[in-house]
Amino acid sequence: MLQFFSKYKFFAIVLFALSAIIISIIYSILKPNKVLPVYEPDMVNTELVDSTVQYIRKYHKIADFKLTNQNGKEITQQDYEDKIYVADFFFTTCQTICPIMTDHMKEIQERLREDKDVLLLSHSVTPQIDSVARLKKYAIEKGVDDTKWNLVTGDKKQIYDLARKSYLAAKSDGDGGPYDMVHTENFILVDKKKHIRGFYDGTNPEDIDKLLEDIDILKKENK
């Protein structure tokens, strides 16, 4: 009996290895790839969505824009063409959630520094205060990589419309003052087709890890 097993030991090992490979292939075929949802306005808390788009159930996209970054360069949708990007809303004088959000955006920048498919975009909700010079100072202090991450200012109404009608990520208290747009802590994941694919708490480290995982899922989806 021992001679029998000794004689066929190599065959048994090969058979076992082949069986493992076949089982692995079958499992990968049968297991569906994870796909991120496409968020439409009617799926989001109505407090964060402008009434003019709340009814939209499909085909929602980020609108075209024309803003100015920390270097005084005009930034448009063309700068994010065929890119996955993470967007948020902040202001440089914010002392509550913004510093935490900026630190987490910096972490994403560092972890994806060599990834040319992913960019970052932060919109000031107080553009009348956050001039190009102020944004540049803030960018230097926070370690912003100009090739990866744009901090943008510009027309207040355009930024407001982007927040409420495109990114679905801001409230308004309607007082008409410099802080009348109340931004959320949300980071918004946008795919190469300008669709929203995820919302994440920019103050929560666990959500940052989830965001990075979801970026990997999006990249596989695009292959």
UniProtKB/TrEMBL annotation:
Molecular function in Gene Ontology: metal ion binding
Xref: SUPFAM superfamilies: Thioredoxin-like
Alphabetical keyword list: Copper, Disulfide bond, Membrane, Metal-binding, Transmembrane, Transmembrane helix
Gene3D superfamilies: Glutaredoxin (3.40.30.10)
A Pfam short name: SCO1-SenC
Ranges of residues in domain Thioredoxin: 56-220
Protein family (similarity comment): Belongs to the SCO1/2 family.
Protein name: SCO family protein
Organism for this UniProt entry: Aquimarina muelleri
